[in-house]
Amino acid sequence: MSPLQPTRRSLLAVCVATVAPIAGCSDTADDASGPVQNSGTGTDLENLDLREANVVDVSVTRENGRATFEVALHHDDEGEGGYANWWQVESLDGERLGRRDLTHPHAEQPFTRSETVDVPADTSCVVVRGHDQTHGYGGQTMLVAIDSGAVQQVRQGAEPASFDASDCP
User: Fold this and answer.
1) Can you tell me the distance from the alpha carbon of 13 to that of 26, in angstroms, rounded to the nearest whole number?
2) Alpha carbon distance, N-terminus to C-terminus of the chain
3) Rounded to the nearest 5 degrees, what angle is found at the Cα of 59, between the Cα atoms of 28 and 9?
4) CA 141 vs CA 30, 40, 81: distances in Å
5) CA distances, 156 to each of 9, 109, 129 (Å)
6) Element (H, E) at 17
7) How many whole angstroms from its chain centre is CA 13?
8) Residue 167 counted as domain residue
9) In CATH, what number is assigned to the domain containing residue 49?
10) Among the listed residues 125, 128, 127, the one whose alpha carbon sits nearest the alpha carbon of residue 147
11) What is the DSSP string of 49-89?
12) Average pLDDT over residues 12-22
């Protein structure tokens, strides 16, 4: 590729910057808090496999039996055929409590989206996993202590890892 020829990622960035505000899905939408640059989780962004949907930051607030999760994913989104297409919150035994669908690639990486999830009162720790269209599960996931907001990073393989209370932060 010549130095003057634009890359696929730069073209995607221009397209998203131009079209996303019109479509109501820019990073400044009311469900986004903008990009996260390794905000306190200790994630080493340089050593992640960006072909997989990596959860790199999670914050949670709990109110009236519901919890709002702000989740940052880092993934080398490659257009309509290979982007991070959802993240979900699960109980430790793998039951899905809620899911945030992502309907398009994101040029700005990492990116953050939020979702409010019904979390049972007796649940003190959950798993937050990312997913992408090409590889499914994989990459980095997070264990999150609901009340304190503490997180524990876990690198998992293609199959979702299972956890118990002793794994929680």
Assistant:
1) 11
2) 46
3) 45
4) 25, 15, 22
5) 27, 21, 10
6) helix 8-23
7) 19
8) no
9) 2.60.40.150
10) 125
11) -TTS-EEEEEEEEEETTEEEEEEEEE----GGGS-EEEEEE
12) 39
- Look at residue 169 and tell me if it is in a domain: no
pLDDT in tens, 29-58: 333 322 222 233 446 666 766 667 889 999
Count of domains in the chain? Answer: 1
Total count of residues recorded for the chain:
169
Give me the residue label for tokens 């039996």.
Answer: 65
Q: Which two tokens stand for residue 73?
A: 């994913």
Cβ distance 41 to 142 under 8 Å? yes
The pLDDT tens digits for 106-153 are 667 788 899 999 999 999 999 999 988 777 787 889 999 999 999 999
Q: Does residue 72 form part of some domain? A: yes
Give DSSP secondary structure letters for 143-156.
EEETTT--EEEEEE
Which helix (H) or strand (E) segment holds residue 13: the answer is helix 8-23
Cβ(155)–Cβ(139) under 8 Å? yes
Pair type for strands 111-118 and 139-145 = unpaired
Residue with tokens 């700005």: 108
Q: What is the extent of the structural domain holding 96?
A: 8-160
Q: The whole model's pTM is what?
A: 0.69
